[in-house]
Fold this protein.
Amino acid sequence: MRALTPKGAATRQRIVEGAAKLIRDHGPANVGLDDIRAATTTSKSQIFHYFPDGKADMLLAVAAHEAELVLAEQEPYLSDLTSWAQWEAWRDRVIARYAAQRRRCPLSALTAQLGLADPAVEGIITGMYARWHRHVADGVRSVRPDADAERAATQIIGAIVGGATMLVATDDIRYLEIGLTEAIESLKNA
Amino acid sequence: MRALTPKGAATRQRIVEGAAKLIRDHGPANVGLDDIRAATTTSKSQIFHYFPDGKADMLLAVAAHEAELVLAEQEPYLSDLTSWAQWEAWRDRVIARYAAQRRRCPLSALTAQLGLADPAVEGIITGMYARWHRHVADGVRSVRPDADAERAATQIIGAIVGGATMLVATDDIRYLEIGLTEAIESLKNA
DNA sequence: GGCATTTTGGACCGCACAGTCCAATCCACG
DNA sequence: CGTGGATTGGACTGTGCGGTCCAAAATGCC
């Protein structure tokens, strides 16, 4: 891929963000290139110009964008889980975020839908979870040096993913609220 | 819908089960009517004969079938969580089951993919979760009469769903193992 | 056995949608 | 300015797939 002029880069960006939003709102299965074209005021040729391998190529960029978003949304807390107060601020931020987005959930769209077919997307997802896991495990170590940090991080992330999945499936936020709260609680009492 | 002769009922059943298996293996998005036709040695007209409203109609039957399966797999333990030994047997059964099916997961296919578009399928799913929740809450009450049974059941089911989702996404069983084990553990120490 | 109904086969239709192509325009740089 | 590459518009193509249709075979019923 040759150099991209500022204008080109902006167009590419507009496509990725527009597509990401559509996919979040309607699910990957219900979003066609024409929808993306319409929502981003671009033309077919632009999509294929910036994503030579077509839709799969673009979905890869969307996945990377969304994976970044999932972690970015949790900052600055996620990188600094060094006190119980920070842990609680993080938990509240996560819950508030998911309560707000409700079913438009980048995490669920990524994990449960985008990653299914394409191994490349799968790689992005596992990478995202690895980074997430590392942050949480670091946090565990700083408040509970004696605990099994890997195990605790696995439990906590599992609770969030379960909560997000149930939120999308049943529109009920309690699975996330209770699951995450209890996971942190059990860490405190370890 | 008029009466169905035994032969007709058998064909209908064959279609539902064949479709369910294909969907479990390849995901709803990657299964077409022709695949189902081929896998069940039926013809297009049979599918539309037994499911007049077409694919959506058939997916509804598949969803009901799979929802039944998810709960049936957990029996006889799920209906009789009256001692810690039963709880542990149930936990082991659930983990073994998911470890065996790995990514071919009826629960995830239902929750994260089938239910997205069709409100009728969504109803089946919420009904399934309601039944599941009731069983688990009953179990909690019988071993921990003092605990908040609704809250505990929510936590436990959330952990399983999270574990199943992560199993599909990353092929890692530990999210389920650890999540479910710790959720039950925290119930014991409540 | 004969009539009605259900069941089955498979050709056919139409559309949605990813992907192609080429000509028109914009822009950087000499 | 003028030239070449980047960018854009949009018509067009091919096809995969859900859905329709009708006629033939099997089955149930009296």
User: Anything to note?
Assistant: The mean pLDDT of chain B is 95. Residues 119-143 of chain B form the longest helix (25 residues).
